[in-house]
Design a protein that fits this description.
- Strand 1 and strand 2 form a beta hairpin.
- Helix content is about 55%, strand content about 5%.
- By secondary structure, the chain is mainly alpha-helical.
- The N and C termini lie far apart (about 60 Å).
Length: about 180
């Protein structure tokens, strides 16, 4: 299978199901941003400091992000939409459980902190901010097109996960969290 089709040379692309839309369509922006996030997750997962348990969880997250991308890339009015896997409430609960387990190892947060401390921590903060952007774009899309509520919930929880993951990696690398000086 060739990766290039030449069908997008004039600024149009197809949603899953065949609907043609401009490449600047909000749905394309939404799943493109989720794809960007997924790439950052891969970068975090590939980092040598990332422990095996975190790598396993990040791989699951990448799979869920691909599912969300598929939802956003599908014309939900077609029969094809019925064949796309769905998220469920347990996917959100799994993120919450992971955050609770990581949080048990780190000091409670008493101040705002600045991103950084270790390269892996910084990558987690980048993933967090891309995730927040993806959430904003998906919410905008949801004003015009159907977007699964669980997809939105998962993305919202995922940005929290990346914040906790950044703090956790600061803890395991024995790096310093820099408190924000608010004066």
């Amino acid at each position: 299978m060739k990766i290039y089709t030449r069908t997008g040379d004039k600024g149009q692309t197809s949603l899953i199901g065949g609907t043609r839309v401009p490449k600047y369509d909000d749905r394309i922006e939404a799943y493109g941003t989720i794809d960007e996030l997924n790439s950052f997750v891969g970068l975090i997962r590939d980092h040598e400091v990332c422990d095996d348990a975190s790598k396993k969880q990040l791989l699951i997250i990448q799979d869920k992000l691909f599912t969300i991308e598929s939802h956003l890339a599908t014309d939900r009015t077609t029969l094809v939409a019925k064949k796309i896997p769905e998220l469920n409430e347990n996917d959100v609960k799994a993120l919450e459980m992971e955050m609770d387990m990581m949080s048990a190892n780190i000091e409670p947060l008493t101040n705002f902190i600045l991103p950084g401390g270790h390269p892996l921590v910084s990558f987690c903060h980048i993933a967090r901010t891309v995730c927040r952007r993806a959430e904003r774009i998906c919410l905008k899309v949801s004003e015009k097109y159907p977007v699964d509520e669980l997809d939105l919930k998962y993305i919202n929880r995922l940005s929290d996960y990346f914040f906790i993951l950044a703090r956790y990696f600061n803890f395991i690398t024995k790096s310093t969290e820099t408190k924000w000086n608010s004066h």
